[in-house]
């Protein structure tokens, strides 16, 4: 029996509202910790001055640098959590995640090739290239996973995505080895992180994230219909191919744009939807916004943890999410059982 079948479709409205308050409060608290915690200790006066844009002291400058970093972590976490929920809804696959399905790596390879071979340097170009790479990889993995008897089962998609991700990562390394002059910067970006964020750097990606968010919210009811099966959805008047394409495009926009600015960050899209289903059920009208908020909270928490664990240095957020996500992935596989996938 799948996870979707064991969780009731509706949770009491009061419980959902309570969890909404809890998640929002946690996100606000984590945002405050992100601004306050770092290599340099800062006081409340420094935080308030930094929020006003003052940079007269080193502590105030540190706060001013942490604010855009926190905002980027919120945007990236929300986008990855939302894209994971969309991918799981589109494929009806509990293992779907931008990292596991290879979408992140496809976006990363496209960016690396664009930089190394075509000398692309404009931020807008990075975003388009990453989105195209993510889209092409998603189509390829789904096509491979659909071969043979049974169509695109969760296990076949996970195996196809993992194999594709390994192959694409090998190509990323091969390309970087031929360009020692840019390998250092690309290697740091390849880990996945939010350090060095600026509002100017985030500006070009915002329209893509906004478009992905709008498409995602418009897909919520359609994903509820798809969860009943393609035949039932069609019987209810849903245009199945269009519904799937809209939700998939939203996930690709969110994942590709986030990868362009942060690098490939894995497992957020796997962990968050499962956690949110436990809180609010499988109704995508609630699941999608909760996945966005919880993904934002998870990535901010991972960024703060990376600063604390390796102090005075830092662990990039992509490393922290990998430490969290790998055991979670194993737990899901054991819980679902391979024969049920």
TrEMBL record:
GO molecular function annotation: transmembrane transporter activity
Any one GO BP annotation for this protein: siderophore-iron import into cell
InterPro entries reported for this sequence: ABC_BtuC-like, ABC_transptr_permease_BtuC
Keywords from the named record: Cell membrane, Membrane, Transmembrane, Transmembrane helix, Transport
Cellular component terms (Gene Ontology): plasma membrane
Claim: Nucleotidyltransferase is one of the keywords in the record: no
Membrane topology: Multi-pass membrane protein
Cellular localisation: Cell membrane
Main localization, broad class: membrane
Transmembrane portions of the chain: 17-37, 70-87, 99-120, 126-145, 157-178, 198-220, 241-266, 286-305, 317-334
Family: Belongs to the binding-protein-dependent transport system permease family. FecCD subfamily.
PANTHER family for this protein: FE(3+) DICITRATE TRANSPORT SYSTEM PERMEASE PROTEIN FECC-RELATED, FERRIC ENTEROBACTIN TRANSPORT SYSTEM PERMEASE PROTEIN
Name of the protein in question: Iron ABC transporter permease
Organism, as annotated: Paracoccus siganidrum
């Amino acid at each position: 029996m799948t996870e979707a079948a064991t969780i009731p479709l509706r949770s009491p409205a009061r419980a959902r509202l309570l969890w909404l308050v809890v998640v929002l409060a946690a996100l606000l608290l984590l945002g405050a910790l992100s601004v306050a915690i770092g290599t340099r200790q800062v006081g409340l006066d420094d935080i308030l001055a930094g929020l006003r844009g003052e940079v007269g002291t080193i502590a105030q400058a540190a706060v001013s640098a942490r604010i855009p970093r926190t905002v980027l972590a919120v945007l990236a976490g929300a986008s990855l959590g939302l894209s994971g929920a969309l991918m799981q809804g589109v494929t009806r696959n509990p293992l779907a995640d931008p990292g596991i399905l290879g979408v992140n790596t496809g976006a990363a390879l496209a960016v690396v090739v664009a930089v190394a071979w075509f000398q692309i340097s404009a931020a807008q170009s990075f975003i388009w290239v990453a989105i195209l790479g993510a889209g092409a990889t998603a189509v390829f993995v789904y096509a491979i996973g659909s071969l043979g008897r049974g169509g695109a089962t969760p296990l076949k998609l996970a195996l196809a995505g993992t194999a594709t991700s390994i192959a694409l990562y090998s190509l990323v390394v091969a390309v970087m080895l031929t360009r020692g002059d840019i390998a250092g910067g690309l290697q740091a970006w390849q880990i996945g992180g939010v350090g060095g964020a600026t509002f100017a750097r985030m500006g070009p990606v915002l329209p893509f994230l906004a478009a992905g968010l709008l498409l995602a919210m418009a897909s919520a009811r359609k994903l509820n219909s798809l969860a009943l099966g393609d035949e039932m959805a069609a019987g209810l008047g849903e245009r199945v191919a269009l519904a799937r394409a809209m939700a998939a495009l939203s996930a690709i926009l969110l994942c590709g744009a986030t990868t362009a600015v942060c690098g490939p960050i894995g497992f957020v899209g796997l962990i968050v939807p499962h956690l949110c289903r436990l809180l609010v059920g499988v109704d995508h009208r609630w699941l999608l916004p909760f996945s966005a908020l919880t993904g934002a909270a998870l990535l901010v928490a991972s960024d703060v943890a990376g600063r604390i664990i390796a102090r005075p240095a830092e662990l990039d957020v992509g490393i922290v999410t990998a430490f969290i996500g790998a055991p979670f992935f194993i737990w899901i596989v054991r819980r679902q059982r391979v024969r049920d996938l």
